[in-house]
Amino acid sequence: MESAVEELKEKGRAAKAASRRMAYLPTEVKNQALHNVADDLLAKKDEVLAANQIDYKEAEASGMNAAMLDRLFLSSSRLESIAQDVLAVAALPDPVGEVFDMRTLPNGLLIGRKRVPLGVIGAIYESRPNVTIDISVLCLKSGNAIILRGGREAIRSNSALAEVVQEACKRAGVPDGAVNFIENTDRALVNHLLKMGDIIDLLIPRGGAGLIKFVTENAAMPVVSGGVGVCHTYVDKSADVAKAVAIAFNAKVQRPTVCNALDTLLVHAALAQRYLPIIAAEWAEAGVEMHCDERALSILKSSPSLKLVPATDEDWGKEFLSLVAAVKVVDSLDEALEHIERYGSGHSEAIVTEGYQPAMRFLNEVDAACVYVNASTRFTDGGQFGLGAEVGISTQKMHARGPLGVKELTTYKWIIFGSGQVRP
């Protein structure tokens, strides 16, 4: 363990040293590194997928649940998609060095702000090997050094991907130590990482609620946490039924194991008799199990082909991460808003309505990172928001909220130009 702690400290020092050079690294060098990463992901696809297969089979044999297995799994198409996201990040404007809010004060001082990197980013994450690439490339583009610490279940996948990034950076001329991967999977090492407040400027945990809670409570540096998504879709009495069916189906079925998938469907009583049998039939074909309140059950129980379960109190506010959805009939927009306020996690919430007033009330009154009108919550994603990729979805309000892209990995400093002014 002592050697592992020393390795961690050594990589921390390397990251700190690299961060000072990363702060003024030319955009062309950073973009070249990203293009190298995208190319190498495809060129070394066989090695990466072979490593992932070993991780996947071991995780499956250990009894890992389906949602986590899906997050762990890599395929040729997923690697190609990751490579495209890398290129999308390369195509984004470089946020570092942007000068904004410049103005001249009455005393003649010219004052404004200049965007700069945060410094060293630490990432602790579970299961998702794509995070190794996403966080690395976003940190590179935003001029930050990175320390990556993945989970034991994906160690071979993460190690292979980290090697791809490091070699791609080296060829582009990125400073040594800009991308650091911790090979040791001993959980005790996390405690040491959390105490490196003199090295790490921001820590990002990606994983389950337990990991996020532990990191948030024990870190000696600022933490951006989130990712736990209890997402609602409310179908208003004025909703277009076909539109509401398509949105709820996509939000639940397109990829049910992710944080922005639908968990609870709220339906206005005035539309429930028409709407619920249609969405229930569509969901049933896709294998969705519906945990229904009494009113929803009374509408749907005559259909034997449906997978219906009486809802319990535990179903409200639950992130299912599977083909399960809670369903509740409500009498008003007010009741829907109250339910979301009580059970939502501040991630992504949607309303389906043809009315301007309910849409605006929903946008104004729902307290979440992402609030939708007539669209699926599945769009809460860095790539879908035009950010290229993301380091996570923040459900907190400081310093950033929602998908965290390159700009969210920067801060600013005040810059002041004078001509000899002194304070009276």
What does this structure look like?
There is one protein chain. This protein has 424 residues and is an alpha/beta fold. The protein folds into 2 domains: 2-224 and 404-417, Aldehyde Dehydrogenase, Chain A, domain 1 (3-Layer(aba) Sandwich), CATH 3.40.605.10; 231-379, Aldehyde Dehydrogenase, Chain A, domain 2, CATH 3.40.309. It has helices spanning 2-22, 27-43, 45-61, 66-72, 76-91, 130-141, 155-172, 188-194, 209-218, 241-253, 269-285, 294-300, 333-343, 356-365; strands at 99-104, 110-117, 120-125, 145-149, 179-181, 202-206, 231-235, 262-268, 289-292, 307-310, 324-330, 348-352, 370-373, 393-394, 402-403, 410-417. A 7-stranded parallel beta sheet has the order 10-9-11-8-7-12-13, with helices on both faces. A 4-stranded parallel beta sheet has the order 5-4-3-6, sandwiched between helices. The chain has a 3-stranded antiparallel beta sheet with strand order 1-2-16, with no helix packed on it. Strand 1 (99-104) and strand 2 (110-117) form a beta hairpin. The protein starts with a helix and ends in a 7-residue tail after the last strand. The model has no long low-confidence stretch (mean pLDDT 95).
H/E element string?
HHHHHEEEHEHEHEHEHEHEHEEHEHEEEE
- According to CATH, the fold-level topology of the largest domain is Aldehyde Dehydrogenase, Chain A, domain 1
Q: Per the principal axes of the C-alpha atoms, what is the gross shape? A: globular
Total number of β-strand segments?
A: 16
Give the strand order, joined by hyphens, for the main sheet. 10-9-11-8-7-12-13
CATH class wording of the largest domain: Alpha Beta
Low-confidence stretches: none
Please state the CA-atom Rg, rounded to the nearest Å.
24 Å
Distance between the termini: 58 Å
